Amino acid sequence: MKTLHLNLKQKWFEQIKSGEKTEEYRIRNNYWNKRLEKDYDQVVIKLGYPAKTDTSRVMIFECKGIVEKCVTHEEFGYGVHVYAIQLGERIQ
Fold this sequence. Notes:
Elements: E1 3-8, H1 10-18, E2 23-27, H2 30-36, E3 42-47, E4 58-73, E5 77-90
Parallel strand pairs: 1-3
Antiparallel strand pairs: 2-5, 3-4, 4-5
């Protein structure tokens, strides 16, 4: 099973936790190109870099796919090409 690990800021973590946000973005660059052009089964979303025992800051979701999009985002700017990591059902 292939697992993608993503560390998020609190704002984005809380939006995913509440169900308001159903996909996570990563900007298209060489770093993410190499990591995201694979098929993943699940996505581990972490609030920052939690201790291994701090399960309250970790969520695991089914990965529904990764698509390329052009978005306007407060952290990336206007009309930026990103990878949209689509989150499915929460596993844990």
